[in-house]
Write a structure and sequence with these properties.
The chain has 157 residues and is mostly helical. It has one domain. Helices cover 88% and strands 0% of the residues. It contains six helices and no strands. The longest helix is centred in the middle third of the chain and has 42 residues. The radius of gyration is 18 Å and the shape is elongated. It starts with a helix and ends with a helix. 33% of the residues are buried.
């Protein structure tokens, strides 16, 4: 059974992550206008990641934990939950916090960004890291979904 929350969670999470790639690109050659724009983009990215985070919690407690997790754990792909999902849960926790840090630094230290190249590079690195973690979350979600579908195919339920 397809759950709307999964698609919404994945879509918002990926869009939020992609926005941090945009932030990084804006910071490659910053000026006041680009820093201001990247601050707004980072805020939207933070909100999207936060909403995705909340939706994931709702989905996990209402559907995944009760219906999907037991099917995966009873299959030959039990590692998909034990390794992949457990990793995904713990890694995903940090994304809203990292994105909030980027937003707050962009919002409060615009002048320093124009003066200090190391500071700017750190924010570029952090923004790209958020993007890559978000991308990896989608891949890990795909692996979990594949393990569930494979378990259903061999009639684990």
């Amino acid at each position: 059974m397809i759950n709307f929350l999964v698609g919404l969670h994945a879509g918002l999470g990926e869009l939020g992550s992609i926005l941090f790639l945009w932030v990084a690109i804006e910071l490659f050659n910053p000026d006041s206008k680009r820093i201001n724009r990247s601050s707004k983009i980072a805020f939207i990215g933070f909100i999207l990641l936060l909403i995705s985070w909340l939706i994931a919690g709702i989905y996990y407690t209402t559907d995944y934990g009760a219906n999907i997790k037991p099917v995966i754990k009873e299959s030959s792909n039990a590692w998909a939950h034990s390794v992949i999902m457990e990793s995904k849960e713990h890694i995903f926790i940090i994304l809203p916090f990292l994105s909030l840090i980027v937003f707050l630094l962009l919002k409060n230290y615009q002048k320093e960004l124009l003066k200090d190249n190391k500071y700017r590079k750190s924010l570029v690195f952090l923004s790209i890291l958020i993007f890559l973690i978000g991308l990896s979350m989608a891949f890990l979600g795909y692996l979990i979904s594949s393990a569930y579908r494979a378990a259903l195919e061999v009639n684990v339920i």
